[in-house]
Amino acid sequence: MKLVLLSGGSGKRLWPLSNDARSKQFLKVLENEHGEMESMVQRVWGQIKGAGLADSAVIATSKVQVEILQNQLGGVPIIVEPERRDTFPAIALAASYLYSQGVGLDETVCILPVDPYVDDQFFDRIRDLEGALHNSGAKMALMGVNPTYPSSKYGYIVPEADENNSDYKKVGRFTEKPSEDRAERLIEQGALWNCGVFAFKLSYMMDHLLRAGMPMQYEDLLARYATLEKISFDYAVVEKESHIAVIPYDGYWKDLGTWNTLTENMGLQHIGKGAISEDSPNTHLINELDIPVTIIGIPNAIVAVSPDGILVSDKEASPRVKDMVDAGQRPMYEERRWGWYRVLDYSKFGDGTEVLTKRIGLKAGNNLGYRKHLYRADTWTIISGKGILVKEGTITPVEAGDVVTIEPGTYHCLKAFHDMEYIEVQKGEVVQEEDFEELFSSWNDIERHCVVSGAKAAGAGRNAL
């Protein structure tokens, strides 16, 4: 069995912590058994490793989430979507990737979201999808959650009524987000919550590609990805398939998609600097800034503070935040493969000059790409840690207290020996993330380039590399 985990999301429902670059699965708000904070994706990947499925798993995501996945999970296998085009194109690309990697057409492929909040047995149950496919002869097998209450937030899988006492049922129909009264009647009929987990043989998806006139090879489909229709897998495939089996899952499952549901499973009442008074029951505080936040006499609320903004909301009303957030707002905090950055200030002056100030963390052993900026100059003030600067053929050791200036058109990079933090002030006519031309990202390539070009170390020595 091959597992494909879908990682997406626009990051609006858990604003201001989530944004287009850091959607809900990357928020480190869950406490693990060691008392450490972890994200939903870290929790799920740990469970997959514990179930012995990691070697068979791959994550499909858009290119904007690649670096934060690498930051949180390390070198996990990733299928990169050039752009977001909904779940059918993503699954089609994943299937073509597996096919191009030599996976057999008879192999079972299981699709699941990257962020379910579940017990460990959830992943043991996933293995049973392969047997359900084989024993039922169905084209597709789903896993549904036994409902614990009549919710109007979830879709329902309604099985056909029969005397089949096996582990699977045949799917009769689907009902999307019914009223609570109707949901109660559906549960009486044996309906299950649709948790977005399903399996099929690889041949099933490749047949869909052939019938749609799409290429089967990964590189060919990747080149045509922008032409694929933006449509969900449910609409494009599932709702048109007449022979689907479903197996029930009896354990714990929850979609932590709103502040209300997320805080129910956080374990801590507040994260970050601040305090909550005793007369503020069921109120949670998450503060990513260095300024303290004090909450007095406000029950049933969520207060979330990040560089992107501040949310103060009644928990029941908090889902409305997605309708009030500016979709075009630039993220003020991002995690990258090498560390993280936080925007501290932005100013634009009368002559058109822009100045952007960031605080940047570079993890030990990591490096920035060897690149140049076309329209801006950077000034770095090293706050902590030690490393080396590579700047146009010169290799220089840097440490706390050093100030470095990078002029436009100057190739440069930084590598950390120990965890480093520094303040970066960007100044120019244009200040934007896309202003760079990069030669290398791998440190081995940078090192090889420096050696070939005869780079000389200024007080660092050859061993600094």
From TrEMBL:
Per the UniProt record, one Pfam family is: MannoseP_isomer
The keyword rRNA processing is assigned to this record: no
Q: Which InterPro entries does the UniProt entry name for this protein?
A: Man6P_isomerase-2_C, Mannose-6P_isomerase_type2, NTP_transferase_dom, Nucleotide-diphossugar_trans, RmlC-like_jellyroll, RmlC_Cupin_sf
Limits of the Mannose-6-phosphate isomerase type II C-terminal domain:
336-437
Question: Is the keyword Transferase in the record?
Answer: yes
Q: Which domain of life is it from?
A: Bacteria
Domain Nucleotidyl transferase stretches: 4-264
UniProt keywords (A-Z) are: Nucleotidyltransferase, Transferase
A GO molecular-function term, please?
nucleotidyltransferase activity
From the Swiss-Prot or TrEMBL record, give the protein name: Mannose-1-phosphate guanylyltransferase
| Organism this protein belongs to | Saccharibacillus endophyticus
